[in-house]
TrEMBL record:
<feature type="transmembrane region" description="Helical">
    <location>
        <begin position="167"/>
        <end position="195"/>
    </location>
</feature>
<keyword id="KW-0812">Transmembrane</keyword>
<dbReference type="Pfam" id="PF02325">
    <property type="entry name" value="CCB3_YggT"/>
</dbReference>
<feature type="transmembrane region" description="Helical">
    <location>
        <begin position="69"/>
        <end position="90"/>
    </location>
</feature>
<protein>
    <submittedName>
        <fullName>YggT family protein</fullName>
    </submittedName>
</protein>
<dbReference type="InterPro" id="IPR003425">
    <property type="entry name" value="CCB3/YggT"/>
</dbReference>
<dbReference type="GO" id="GO:0016020">
    <property type="term" value="C:membrane"/>
</dbReference>
<keyword id="KW-1133">Transmembrane helix</keyword>
<comment type="similarity">
    <text>Belongs to the YggT family.</text>
</comment>
<feature type="transmembrane region" description="Helical">
    <location>
        <begin position="7"/>
        <end position="30"/>
    </location>
</feature>
<keyword id="KW-0472">Membrane</keyword>
<feature type="transmembrane region" description="Helical">
    <location>
        <begin position="97"/>
        <end position="130"/>
    </location>
</feature>
Length: 197
C-alpha cells in the first residue's frame, strides 16, 4: 500500500511539474511570437511563472530581443532537477547527467509541440464558429500560431475559403514529435512519462 501511495505521489508531482513546464514554454512562445503582453491571459502566465524565472533574469536576458533565455533556462533546470529527484526517490539510483539533460530537452520540446498542437485545434474551431471573436483567449491563440502559419501560407496559399496550412503544420508537429522527441527520450534512457509523453 505504501509503495502504491508513493508511486501515486511521484506521478502527481511529475504531472504538476509537467504542467508548470507547459506554462513556462507558453510564456516563452508568447514572447517569441510578440503576442500582446498586456492580454489578461499573458499577464496570468507571467504572474504564475515569474517567481521561478526571476532568479535567472539577473544574468540571462532576452536573446535577439525575442527569445527569453531566462525562461528557457528555468524550464530546463526545473525539469532536470525533477527527473533526478524522481528517479532517486523511485529507487533507480544516480541518474546519468547526460541522460537527465537530454530528457529535459525532450520535455521542453514536447511541451512546445503540445502548445502549438492545442493552439491550432482552438484556432480551427474558432475559425468555424467565431471567426471574428474578440475574446482575449482567441486573440492570443491567433497571435501565438501566426508565426508558424505564415511561412506555410506563403508556400501553400489558401484555396478560396480552404486554408491547408494547419494540416501541414499538424503533419510537421507529428513528425517532430515522433522522430525528434521520441529519439531524445530513448537516448535519455528514461520513461516517457517523465518528459510528458
Amino acid at each position: 500500500m505504501g509503495s502504491q501511495l508513493g508511486s501515486a505521489g511521484l506521478l502527481l508531482v511529475n504531472t504538476l511539474i509537467n504542467i508548470y513546464i507547459f506554462l513556462l514554454m507558453l510564456r516563452f512562445l508568447l514572447q517569441a511570437s510578440r503576442a500582446d503582453y498586456y492580454n489578461p491571459i499573458s499577464q496570468s502566465v507571467v504572474r504564475i511563472t515569474q517567481p521561478a524565472v526571476r532568479p535567472f533574469q539577473s544574468f540571462l536576458g532576452p536573446v535577439m530581443g525575442r527569445f527569453d533565455l531566462a525562461t528557457l533556462a528555468t524550464a530546463f533546470v526545473i525539469k532536470a532537477v525533477s527527473i533526478f529527484l524522481i528517479l532517486q526517490i523511485a529507487g533507480f539510483g544516480m541518474a546519468p547527467i547526460a541522460g537527465v539533460a537530454i530528457g529535459s530537452v525532450a520535455a521542453i520540446a514536447n511541451a512546445i509541440l503540445k502548445i502549438y498542437f492545442f493552439a491550432l485545434i482552438v484556432m480551427i474551431i474558432l475559425s468555424w464558429v467565431a471567426p471574428q471573436a474578440n475574446h482575449p483567449g482567441a486573440m492570443l491563440v491567433m497571435q501565438l500560431v501566426e508565426p508558424i502559419m505564415a511561412p506555410v501560407r506563403r508556400v501553400i496559399p489558401p484555396l478560396g475559403m480552404i486554408d491547408l496550412s494547419p494540416i501541414v503544420v499538424f503533419i510537421a508537429i507529428s513528425l517532430i514529435d515522433g522522430i525528434v522527441v521520441t529519439s531524445l527520450t530513448r537516448a535519455a534512457g528514461i520513461a516517457g512519462a517523465l518528459v510528458g509523453l
